[in-house]
Structures are given as C-alpha cells and as structure tokens.
What we know:
The chain is α+β, with helices and mostly antiparallel strands and 705 residues long. It is 20% helix and 21% strand. Among the domains are: 5-141, Immunoglobulins (Immunoglobulin-like), CATH 2.60.40; 156-272 and 320-397, TIM Barrel (Alpha-Beta Barrel), CATH 3.20.20.80; 579-690, Sandwich (Immunoglobulin-like). Strands 13-14-17-18-21-22-23-24 form an eight-stranded parallel beta barrel. A hairpin with a 2-residue loop joins strand 19 (352-353) and strand 20 (356-357). The protein starts with a strand and ends in a 15-residue tail after the last strand.
Amino acid sequence: MERYRIEPGRVYPMGASLDDNGVNFSLFSANAEKVELCIFDEHGCQELMRFALPLCEHQVWHGYLRGAKAGLVYGYRVYGPYQPEFGHRFNHHKLLLDPYARSLTGQFSWSDRHFAYKLDDPKQDLSFDDRDNADVMFKAVVVEPSAPRLPRVPVAWQNTVIYEGHVKGLTELNNKVPKELRGSFLGISHPAMIAHYRALGITTIELLPVQQFVSEQFLTDKNLSNYWGYNSLAFFVPHKNYLNQHLIVEFQRMVDELHQAGFEVIIDVVYNHTCEGNWLGPTLSFRGIDNSSYYRLNPSEQRYYINDTGCGNTLNISHPRVLQMVMDSLRYWVQVMGVDGFRFDLAPILGREVDGFDKSNGFLDAILQDPVLSSVKLIAEPWDIGPGGYQLGGFPAPWSEWNDQYRDAIRRYWRGDKGMLPEFARRIHGSSDIFEHSGRQPYASINFLCSHDGYTLRDLVSYQQRHNEANGEHNRDGHSDNFSNNHGVEGETTDNDILALRLRQIQNMLATVMLSQGVPMLLAGDELGRSQKGNNNAYCQDNEINWLNWHDNSEYADELIPFVASLSQLRTRLPMLAHRKFIHKDDPSSDVDIVWFHRSGLPMHKEHWHSHHAATLGYLIQQKDSVSETLLCLFHAGAEPIEFQLPEIDAVEHWQVMIDTTASAIQEEIRRIPAQRKITMAPFSTIVLLNGDFNDKNQELSTDE
C-alpha cells in the first residue's frame, strides 16, 4: 500500500491538482464542520484510508497528500448538521463526488443508500440514514495535466451553419463507422461522419450534453434512461458511456480531429440544476457538501428548493463560489477540452437574481469580461418555467439565442395558417423586431424548425398529434400544439401523393431556414428523413426511436442530402444571405438591398401585407455593387397553384433556377427563365432564382424558352 502523508495545502486551484510530489485537494463548503478525503483502490471498489483535510480558509477546505500520484481514486465525506428545515443536509455516511472531478471510475447504480434519509420513514427527509453508499457511487480519479489543445477553428457567426446531434444517436446505427466506435466521442469524428458533414455543408456540430449525467431513478425503474443527458452530476467530466476506454483524451481527440477537418464543436451545458432533484432527492455531491450554498432554497421554508427548472432544484449561480465553479468549468472545456462554444440550457436561470432576470447580472457580466469565454460562441435557450422566464431577445451581445418565434412562425406559414405573411417576413429577415433594438445583429437569432426537443422534420409533416406512449406517461408529456400537419393520414402511409407533398414540405422548410438571415440550425437526421414515430418528447428513449437510421430512409435521404448541400452552397456563394447586419430597403449605409414582392410582380404594399388569405411572397436581396448577384426567393404556402409575375429588375435578363421544391434535388441540368414573365407555382412550393450562372457568374446566359 502506498504511504501517504496529509499536510496543509492550498485554497486554489479548486479540486485535485497534481504536481511532482503529491496532490493538492481543495473543496468549498461554507457550513461543513469537517471534511474527510477517502482513498480507494484503483477500481473504486474498496476504501483504503481516510484523511481529514487539515485546514479551512475562506470557506475552502484543503490538504496536500504527499506521495499521491495520477490515477489516485478518491471521494469525500463531509460532516455537519443534518437540519433540512434550516437548509443543511450533511450526512458523512454518504460518499460524495468532488464537484471539480476530471475523471471517474466505478459504477453508479440506484440504491436507497444514496438518500440521506430513510425512504420508508413517515418523516421523509427529516429522518436520517446512516448506511454507506460507497459501493454504488462513482469515485473521482486524479488525472495528469492535459497538453494544450490545437487552435480553435475561427468560423464567423454569420457563416455558421449548426448541426445539432446526440453523441450516441449520431453513429449507433452507422455501419460505415467501426462497431467499437459507434455511440462514442470517437465515432463523431470518424472519417465517414466527417464526409457526411462536408456533404451537407455544415460548419459547426452542436452536441447534446456531454458532461457526466445520470438517469433518474423513476426512469431506470421503467427500463428507460435519460437519453438526452439534461441531468448533470459532474461539470468537468466527459460522460463515461461515450468513452471507449474511459480516457478523457478521447474527447480531446474527437475535438482535434473535427478541428483539423474544419469543423467547430459546441456543447450543450446544463448549469441550471443537478441530478440531485428536489428535497426528496439523493445525496451524491453538492447537496451533501453544502446544500444551502449550492442550491437556491425557498427563503421562508429552507427545507424546500426554488424550482425554476422543473427538475426539482435550481443551482445557486448567485453564490460567488458556485459562480466560480461554473466559470472554471466553462474555461476548462475551452482551454483543456478544446470546444468552440456552448449552448446553455434554460439560460434565464443563469441571469436571474432575487428580483428577476437581469442581463447585467453576475454570471452574464462574468462571461462578458472573461478573456477566454467572451471570445467563444455563446447560445442561450432563452426560456425556463420561473418568473419572467421567457427572455427571447433579452440577452446582451455577443450572445445568440434559440428563436422559438422563428420556429413557430415558419411552421405555421407552411402549414397553411392564414394571416402569416408579416410574421413570416420578419422571421426570414432575421427577427430584427426582437434583436435589433439592443444593437444586436442577425446572427443573434438561431433559426431552427426542429431540435432534439419535439418532432423531427419528417414527423412534423406526418403527425397531427403526439404519440409518446413509449415514455410511460400515458401520452400526457410533451408539447400539445406542434403546428404540425399530417397532410391527410396520421403517420406512415403508402399514398404517393401524400408522400410527395410531405417531402416537398420538408424541402420548403429546409429552404426557408437556409435562406433566412441569421444562423441556421439543422437537427441531425432531418436530412435523412428520420422519424421518431410521432414521439415529440423522446428524452428517455435510448433506442431506434432516437438513433439515426442511416440505411432505411433512402427515399428521403437521396433527395434531402443533395438538397441541403445545394442550399449550403448557395449560402456560401452569396454572403448577402448571411449578412453581418440587418438589411433594410434603401439603406445608404448598407451594401445590400432588400425588397418584398407581391405575386403581381409589384413591391408589397400595406394592403398586401394585411390580406388575411395571402400565402405567397417574393423576397429579393441584391448586392448593390454587383447586379449579377440578385437573388429572388418565391414562397407559396397555398393549397392551389398560382401564377407569380416575375418583377422587373434592372439588368436582369434571365434567371437561373437554383432551388425548386417541385423538382428532384438530384437533377443536374441548369434551368433558365427569361425575366419579366409569369411562372406557375405549385401548391406548397419554393422557387429560388439567381441572376447569373451559379457555376460561372460571368457566363452569358441563353434563353431556353
């Protein structure tokens, strides 16, 4: 057995810090009376020894374990009052995970022994349980300092195209990825996956939570799991199940390989709550270390938690040490793990003070002044269930935000809802009504139609009602109004007319996202025609409902993959589709002009915008110093064909058809249309016309008609 000696250590850095002679351990707890460092064998099975941390300074307990080396397995036992009614839930019988743990060993399994109280006691959490839980609890592992990461890939916000996916779901069924890599971090960066990203033209991969999480007990009891991962336990640890050999370098290697291929990596992070749940939840880490500091408690009844998350508890970001932990975690994932940015789950919680959301609160200000974090991509999910929880447009620059008003307006327009033209135009214009007033730019809007939460794009055009029976909640969970349309048959059908319309509607919506000002986000698998069989809340389905089926949707994939690629190429070819600033008609300070056209070929007037039954709109953007770069997008969400008079545009003699959702995406011939003629638009269709030849804009065009 190794011979160790404990001696006073250092307050900073927090967590376990290795040097040539030993390991410094540092743990914040404002209300603890004693902290024990528990050392385990290399597999985390047997506790070998304990050391009381000798000093507490500035509410940080610390000790230096001389002789300790990388690979040391440890946990904490924290002593103090067990008084839930006063916010204190110390129970030294429970092994606790270091909030700054970098790597884990052992296995976690649910047990009554994880709870600080007796589950069968009528006093509930006011009782006390003195059983040990170490054998069914994760342990932390001391790791060697990591080498610096490769430089990040600088993709300007306005050029960003996001692809949101799940680490396991992306590759679990892809037989082009070696079996041993499927469902793992290394599967994400396999050459077969990189080839697919390139084919689509995306720039940025956004991964659902990758920090260590656990599934709730009520799910495991039903043989389900928290597949999405929004149930965090350890904010510095890559999720164990996504590692092939349980080595954190696998995540770093994934990032390096994606960077070398030219792609960014954004990770979804959950700093609003933890997996310890409500007042009847388990004691795994924060609750047992210092419950009243780490969590926001009800001021009048401190036994209970403020639950702005809907998950039982709310992390107390207002506390300086908790804020420090979150900031340290974010910097770690940038500087050590190499990521390029973050999407923050339920972000208003991070900006909420006692008096409500404040865009100048401690966390948001800390981000803005941080030399590391202020330079990466920051995306807010701008809503939660707390007071004042809807904050779309409320975050400061340089934040971007998931734009649900974009999602709903585009869905409703293509569903055929009446009176949608003004809203539709505002959303594809970049939602200037939401963001421009505070000096932000179009890339503040993350434009999406589908995400992990809700229907896939195929289900959006195939189901009128949610079908969440597999979740075990009697189909009561998930959104009840999805602005979807099954087009005549609920679910799967063999009707070719319905199938053709569904495919066209998918293409219409993909085209709208890619032709809008702002940052497009695609849900992984929508380009394959992935279906969740109508499940719009598949958070607990670790199976074929969520995994991308790469080989059984060829009738969709054969059309949609080249279709998305053509849209990406168009967006890259024409920077005005991704303009840095909001485009306004006749703006002398802008190099781009915009005009909205009525089907008559005339610019839209007030009476056109307020025509309740109108479902057709022309959207022209033009580079002022290049007449050859004029793009005309025609949208028609009516159920009957219509004629659209092409507008008279100076120097435009012919239009090249770039996109036509009534035609096959894989056709290769170039179609040209003379200017100033009428064209017929089929029901629910999109046509995109470019002045000039896309392949050679200087080539003289001939008339095909």
